[in-house]
Inverse folding.
């Protein structure tokens, strides 16, 4: 069994790290290169960088940011945002990404996941799944959101995760839209539902406030836990989280 991973996430817009609550009310949280270097020095196991303005703006991912982050980062890097094709993914990998996350384009054309897996390997094809508790679909507890949370597709999130895994996704970056930025803890019910539907690793995202929240997410089926606000705002540090996780009996990867 691989040890769980603790992964900081940088939501980037126009070259700056931003953070809000439920994908709204975004505020500046710093420079992506400076934060990436700091988190790597602190002992992060991996890093995720999401260009959250790329898809809504109809543009490709900002590869200059990816190159700059890669230059200071000795750990694995997942990049998402604005990926619509194998060519888009290839540019990110050439810029320094190790894995590429896709959301909106894969929902619109699920074949994209198979194409990415065939070209680069399933370990590079990450499904970024933003799921919200449903208010519109009587057949789904959670529905898929795209375009940085702005669009509720009405699609059943559990069924979509299972289909994405069949199409070649090697991992699920699962964000609870409802918990994002709230520090209320991960949506454990959502995590358990996705974990029961797929056999690939899950990164839990949305709502972390403590090591206890992270341990609960790992117990619910996640293989990794993602954090943003609590790190950007100085609420805690990666060494402190890892120490407290160890006290809870959870030994992370590095």
């Amino acid at each position: 069994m691989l040890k769980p991973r603790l992964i900081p996430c940088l939501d980037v817009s126009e070259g700056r790290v931003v953070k809000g609550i439920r994908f709204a009310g975004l505020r500046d949280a710093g420079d992506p290169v400076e934060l990436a270097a700091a988190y790597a020095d602190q002992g992060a196991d991996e890093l995720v960088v999401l260009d959250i303005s790329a898809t809504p703006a109809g543009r490709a991912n900002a590869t200059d940011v990816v190159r700059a982050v890669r230059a200071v980062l000795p750990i694995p890097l997942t990049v998402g945002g604005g990926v619509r094709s194998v060519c888009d993914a290839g540019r990110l990998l050439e810029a320094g990404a190790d894995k590429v996350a896709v959301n909106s384009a894969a929902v619109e054309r699920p074949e994209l996941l198979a194409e990415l897996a065939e070209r680069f390997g399933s370990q590079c094809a990450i499904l970024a799944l933003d799921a919200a508790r449903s208010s519109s679909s009587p057949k789904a507890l959670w529905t898929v959101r795209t375009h940085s949370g702005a669009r509720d597709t009405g699609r059943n999130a559990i069924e979509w995760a299972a289909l994405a895994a069949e199409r070649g996704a090697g991992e699920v970056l699962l964000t609870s839209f409802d918990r994002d930025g709230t520090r209320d803890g991960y949506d454990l019910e959502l995590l358990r539902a996705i974990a029961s539907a797929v056999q690939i690793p899950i990164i839990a995202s949305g709502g972390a406030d403590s090591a206890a929240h992270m341990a609960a997410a790992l117990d619910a089926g996640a293989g990794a836990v993602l954090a943003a606000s609590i790190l950007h705002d100085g609420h805690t540090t990666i060494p402190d989280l890892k120490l407290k996780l160890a006290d809870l009996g959870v030994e992370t990867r590095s």
